[in-house]
Amino acid sequence: ALTVDTARQGPKIDDTMYGVFFEDINRAADGGLYAELVQNRSFEYSTADHASYHPLTAWTRTGSGEVATVSDDGRLNERNRTYLRLRPDGTEAGTGVVNSGYTAGIPVTDGRRYDFSVWARTDAADGTPLTVALRAADGTPLAEPLRITARGDRWAQYTGTLTARATGTTGRLALTAGGTGTVRLDMVSLFPRDTYKGRPGGLRKDLAEKIAALRPGFLRFPGGCLVNTGSHEGYDEASGWQRKRSYQWKDTIGPVEERATNANFWGYNQSYGLGYYEYFQYAEDIGAMPLPVVPALVTGCGQNRVTDDPALLRRHIQDTLDLIEFANGPTTSVWGKKRAELGHPKPFGLTHLAVGNEENVFDAFFERFTAFRTAIEARYPDITVVSNSGPDAGGPTFDRAWQLNRDAKVALVDEHYYRSPQWFLENNERYDSYDRSGPQVFLGEYASQDNRFRNALSEAAFMTGLERNADIVKLASYAPLLADTASTQWRPDMIWFDSTRSWGSTSYEAQKLFMTNTGDRVVPSTATATPAVTGPITGAIGLSTWATSAAYDDVTVTGADGTPLFADDFSAGDSRWTRAENRGNWTVQGGRYVQSDATAENTLVTAGDPAWHDYDLRTKATKLSG
Ligand code: AHR
């Protein structure tokens, strides 16, 4: 029975309560939302980003002349350090390179237009003829080739359009130089004309629209672990551009050929083509409040490194003040002027900004957070500076974090947790007892650990608890938002995609229900029922657990009674979260789960409700030495 008490008023629910958290994980930006089709367009991939990378990653050579990647003072600019040098030998086949795009290839659709561009310079007196062709992996032409002549030995950009004459997902972009001489090339780019809102160099339409369809109240960006992990320093004289650098917004604005590229925390190179200006613009497009996260000079995400450098801290604080000026300042201010020059004289209306993400060394973090907060509030008293509570839903770091945040009267604290569906069901009342005189809550990341119906159901049940506490839980976002099926570092995820298709998970549908039907006010209600257990249940059921193999080697999963179920031998040293899993046919027989596969004979005895069994799994992980 459901009893609704219309006589009493519950808390008001803000329009901004449900939002999205975008992070470049699972190729969410490069190869995902950022619609660029050429991978490693600037030849900047490096073994410092990933052991398998080199400047010609995603490229192959063609023809008989000389093909080389060069990093010398002939470069396009100081940020874009490596370029491609071709020395065609006058043969008819010419000399060139072919790009294979991301994962399966470059997807093209018959009749659609694709905008090509390249920076080039040549010492050939009559110029260098360049042929740009799109063809499938098997060589089938996908478009009429484009012919361009590069002239002069100064860098200049050349553009053109290719119109697809066939549909394919394994496209290759071939760039061939003819004649003789030396031609230098950089920033080889191909974008679909049909981007979100038709912006050149813009966002992949289906993904941008799926996010927009949620009608998010806010957009938290750009991370996550992405933001706060890596070196906090800038340019490294010895090794060139700092390859593992915390996310710094000034690296990400202005002409794309002048933006930095470097290693991404999630194991691939980030181009920053989707940068701070684009994030603000997208937030505005979808009616979401922008909520950037800046690094705090303490690396969270299990890395626990503290940078103790007062001058560097001052620079990062200044960068953050400049960021606020970039978002909100008048066009007469230094950074407000830059925003206007990029095409947006109107302020972006930034009201919230988070410093840090999931720091374990919390006291050190909080010291730095306080320095940021003091400087920001002195200059911009209307900006809400968001803190966090470390990487988990409870425990000593969490308690210490809350104590510090409470004592310092911080306005909003970012909580993160990824737990089982059962945990979400059991914690519906988590916020009922939160201290109303303390900081409010930004639930910046949460998900129940899988993408099945029961996960969405447990999240939806939990969200009723968030909503009931809308006076203290001010913002909430599921995470992660996007995942490429061919490059997944973290699961579950809200929206999945490959090169041409995208689809929402069950959790996407649950989020959409809440986000597009947000109430104005909570009406107090009570429900009573006796849960019915129906059975037996038979079918394919997955057992899974999560571990990060940077810390763990072997993971063994046993039933609640200690029965071994399965083991997974993780490859040591991989810092990504991985799921050990066993999928099989399971039957519930009198409260016992029996795997009916011929391959394994495992039995899990459940206690209580037999509807879902993995609540009772016990995980034993063997820690790696050191
Ligand atoms: O959402 C994926 C990751 O989970 C985020 O980068 C991090 O903040 C959290 O640990």
Characterise this structure.
With 626 residues, this protein is of the alpha+beta class. It folds into three domains: 20-30 and 197-527, Alpha-Beta Barrel (TIM Barrel); 59-194, Jelly Rolls, CATH 2.60.120.260; 538-623, no CATH class. Helix content is 18%, strand content 30%. An eight-stranded parallel sheet has the order 2-14-17-20-21-22-23-24. Strands 3, 6, 7, 9, 10 and 12 form a six-stranded antiparallel sheet that branches. A hairpin with a 5-residue loop joins strand 30 and strand 31. The longest helix has 19 residues, at 310-328. The chain starts with a strand and ends with a strand. Residues 23, 25, 223-225, 301, 357-358, 391, 416, 445, 479-480, 490 line the site of alpha-L-arabinofuranose. GO terms for molecular function: alpha-L-arabinofuranosidase activity.
In short:
The chain is an alpha+beta fold.
Radius of gyration, taken over Cα atoms and rounded to an integer in Å: 26 Å
Number of domains: 3
In terms of DSSP E residues, the strand content is: 25-35%
Spans of 5+ residues with little confidence (pLDDT < 50)? 531-553, 557-561, 569-626
Global structural class: alpha+beta
**Count of discrete alpha- or pi-helical segments spanning 4 or more residues:** 10
Distance between the termini: 56 Å
Associated small molecules: alpha-L-arabinofuranose
Q: Into which percent range does the helicity of residues fall?
A: 10-25%
The CATH architecture name of the largest domain reads Alpha-Beta Barrel
Shape: globular
CATH topology group of the largest domain: TIM Barrel
Total beta-strand segments = 35
GO molecular function: alpha-L-arabinofuranosidase activity
EC number: 3.2.1.55
Family: Belongs to the glycosyl hydrolase 51 family.
Protein name: non-reducing end alpha-L-arabinofuranosidase
